[in-house]
Structure prediction request, 253 residues.
Amino acid sequence: MTKVIALAGKGGTGKTTTSALLVKYLLNRGKTPVLAVDADANANLNELLDLSVDVTLGEIRKDLKGDIPQGMSRDQYMEMKIHQSLIEETGFDLMVMGQPDGPGCYCAANQYLAMTMDKLAENYQYIIVDNEAGMEHLSRMNLRAIDYLLIVSDPSARGIMTARRIADITKPLQLEVEKQYLIVNRAPDPVSPVLQEKIDEAVQNADMNLAGIISASDDLIDQELSGNSYLQLADNTKVIQQAYAIFDTIFSQ
Ligand SMILES: Nc1ncnc2c1ncn2[C@@H]1O[C@H](COP(=O)(O)OP(=O)(O)O)[C@@H](O)[C@H]1O
Ligand SMILES: [Mg+2]
Prediction:
């Protein structure tokens, strides 16, 4: 059974960072194959994984409006294009959604996408969806049931309350969420007792499960600056250890 993991949270909190660390974790634990979906219009998960993107699904949708090769139906053509757009790596594939529909959406394309996703999903053990703050792409892709919703927040009480509100936007989208966890990211290292108390209190008020805290990490910043893949971060790096401990907690339950 394919498990769907969706990332949510305010812009800049660390959703894409967490997605990249999660790809690394699942590969490390042999929980493969993985499909990583970059569902942010300003896609940059590929950069953290040091992969270049030829074509996004947004671009494919535009193609579909024009002529299609003879002897092919539009849904066959869409399916072929979607498969072509996958970036295939060892243990995981990356799919990039790109820009959403402008005005005058070609909605049939979304139906083809939803149909293809249903079939495609079966090929993977885990699907990670790196969302922008809104999560409309999930329903567009027909991913209505989320097994794990991971909400990323900065280490402040206000940030955590915002995370709570973001988690609630799954309701009007009629997404079924099985399990929901909060990850507090970019915390000072070490977390002072006062800050820890504030985080615990905010987590309790927000009625969320805290999966763990990731420190602000120079290793991540250096890796991003150097352009090397996050997959190449050494397993003994503190941030990797923290991320692995968090994911072990989440995926062992
Ligand atoms: N734990 C961390 N330590 C240091 N920098 C971080 C950490 N998490 C994220 N960042 C940095 O913060 C910025 C925003 O992170 P990103 O993952 O792109 O956020 P989002 O996807 O939620 O918008 C990036 O430049 C990233 O490198
Ligand atoms: Mg992002």
User: Anything to note?
Assistant: The CA atoms of residues 125 and 133 lie 25 Å apart. The chain has a mean pLDDT of 90. The pocket of adenosine-5'-diphosphate (ligand 1) is lined by residues 9, 11-17, 185-186, 214, 216-217, 220-221, 224 (CB under 6 Å). The radius of gyration is 18 Å.
